[in-house]
Amino acid sequence: MFGLTRSAIAATILTLCGLTPTAAQADPDRAVAGGGALPPGWHARTDGNRPLANVKFEPMSVGYHATLGPAAIFWRDADTASAGYGVEAKLWWFPDTSAGHRGHREGYGLFVGGSDLGGARQRYTYFLIRGDGTFLVKRRIGDSTASVTPTWTPSKTVVTQDSAAAATPVENTLAIRVAGTKASFLVNGTEVYTADAGALDVKGIVGYRVNHNLNVHLGPLAISR
């Protein structure tokens, strides 16, 4: 879609900053060199309002690159959608094969319906995929979350890591479409889940969500109305 090959992405990004654990826990948020600043017009919020010092979100090639300690969402105030729309982006996940982090299972993807994203009453619906070939739909309501899909769900449409090419970025295209009373969630052009749009947050700001300790390239958001 954007004329960007896996090899081009890999050559540009695989030399990004080194990452190290920050706390003695099972899967601690990492320290990220050069974090904290955001491109003009962009906002970010971490889960639990952790400091942005370990969040690196920067323009790179086509789109943006996120290198994270804590999980975060990223958005621009102008990127909004209400009834009858589609949001789509191509995403590249860079597997971490370092000792202790092989098989790291965290999700990344899109969100819609964002409101009060910097405040105590934040709300949005998010759609994530994971390197093991599963997807998840959830809602954020203030400091809590509510499951839409009961759990991470396997789908053959999600491209997974090739064990023979551990350093190769994994490319998937995610989309959320809202039409009438239906919200559809698609991976690589195939619908993997549908829900009642009235039971979700679908009117508001759209953006990206990336969970903790991930290294993901985010293609431009395409919003159709």
Task: Explain what this protein looks like in three dimensions.
The protein is mainly beta and 225 residues long. The chain has a single domain (6-224), classed as Jelly Rolls (Sandwich). The chain is built from one helix and 18 strands. Strand 13 (170-179) and strand 14 (182-187) form a beta hairpin. The two termini are 19 Å apart. The model is unreliable at 4-25 (pLDDT under 50).
Strand content: over 45%
Looking at CATH, the homologous superfamily is Exo-inulinase, domain 1
* Domain count: 1
Supply the number of helical segments. Answer: 1
By CATH reckoning, the class would read: Mainly Beta
The CATH architecture? Sandwich
Compressed to H and E, one letter per element, the order equals HEEEEEEEEEEEEEEEEEE
Judged by helices, strands and strand pairing, the structural class is mainly beta
The residue ranges in which pLDDT falls below 50 over 5 or more consecutive positions are: 4-25
Distance between the termini: 19 Å
Annotated CATH topology:
Jelly Rolls
Number of strands: 18
What about the largest sheet? 8 strands, antiparallel
Arithmetic mean pLDDT: 87
Highlighted features:
225 residues; Jelly Rolls; eight-stranded antiparallel β-sheet; mainly beta; globular
